[in-house]
Specification:
130 residues; Rossmann fold; 6 helices; globular; disordered N terminus; disordered C terminus
């Protein structure tokens, strides 16, 4: 049984550079009933994801030990079904294409609100209706 199932709450892992943005996101998702793990490195994020897979991983593209791009690619190589979002300085077509290239579910700018991030995640996690 995974930790997510044992707690009955969806788990989110947030690999971050900007501690203010990470704290805002963590507070918002916790209020929505998520179990949130804040991790400031790519290596530690990958370790946690492989040991105890969360429902969603959010990675900053500028992690200090390896880029979020590389961390996402490594996670998705080992766990192709894992939902990964990338967060960076600005939302551009090039960043969105590269996020798609590494297998991420989406890309958002750091200055976008936690509500926008949640809408992006929930929109990608909920099945499309006919």
């Amino acid at each position: 049984m995974t930790a997510e199932k044992s707690y009955g709450r969806p788990r989110l892992v947030l690999g971050y550079v900007d501690s203010v943005h990470a704290s805002q996101c963590a507070r918002y998702f916790r209020r929505q009933g998520w179990e949130v793990h804040l991790i400031p490195s790519g290596v530690d994020t990958r370790r946690l994801v492989l040991d105890s897979p969360p429902r969603v991983v959010i990675l900053d593209t500028e992690l200090p030990d390896e880029s979020g791009w590389l961390t996402a690619a490594k996670i998705l190589l080992d766990r192709p079904e894992q939902v990964v979002f990338l967060v960076g300085r600005e939302r551009t077509d090039a960043n969105e294409r590269f996020a798609s290239f590494v297998g991420a579910a989406g890309f958002l700018a750091r200055d976008e609100s936690p509500v926008t991030l949640a809408e992006e995640i929930f929109g990608n996690l909920l099945p499309a209706t006919a």
